[in-house]
Every structure is written in structure tokens, then in C-alpha cells.
Amino acid sequence: MKTENIYEFEYVNTCTCSEDEDFVMFNALQIDCEGECWQRVLEDFTDLTIDLFDENETLWWKVSDLGLWDGNHSGYGYAMCAEDLLSLMTVNSEWNIKGKVFNDRIEYSLSHHDSLGSNTVLTMVSEEQREELGLY
Question: Which pLDDT value is given to residue 94?
Fold first, then answer.
């Protein structure tokens, strides 16, 4: 039986970094910031999601129950890298994301101006599902 790996993460997109000897907080701006902090977030999230990308042959993903101003929404998106995946998982606004990466999914809570948090799940879309949905 394969052991399930679980990796925890937390990011805030305010574009500042602070470090001390025992703790490193990564903060980055989702779209506008391309500085050192953003690169550190991408490197960290890339390391955490590398196995998911290796397992997902289609590179299509489903986001379920993302909290927005008018309720929870679900949808599909294509992501080839960690930066694309973060864009699918978040909103174009200030946000705080906290979650866990499992072998087959990401469970997370996204807080932003329209939602104080959600129980959102990102899963891989199989080739069969992709064909059924007409995703290209």
C-alpha cells in the first residue's frame, strides 16, 4: 500500500517577505509581483505539487466549491505549472490561501474580500473525463 504524502502550505499575496531563524513566511502578489517573494512562492508550490503534475496526464484540473461573492462555484482549468495552478485556485484580488497537498488532490481554504474562507478541493481530470467534458 502506497503511503499518502501530505504537504501543508500557506501563502498571502501582499508582496513582502519576512524571515527569522525558525520560520519563513512567503508572501507574493499573484499577478503583478515578479520579485524575489513571488519566485520563492513558486519554487515552494512547485516542489509541493510536482507529484500531482507527474500523475496528471491531461494537465486539466477541477476546482470544486470555490467561495465567491455569490456562493460556491466549481469549474475546470488547464495548468501546466505551479503558477498556472495557483491562478486557477485563487482570485484576481488580495487573498490568503492555506491548504494541504495530497497524492491525488489539494484541499484548501481561500480567503479574500468576497469570502472569509472556503472548503475548496482541486482534483485532476482524467483523460476519460476530459473527453466526456469536451476539454481541449
Answer: 84
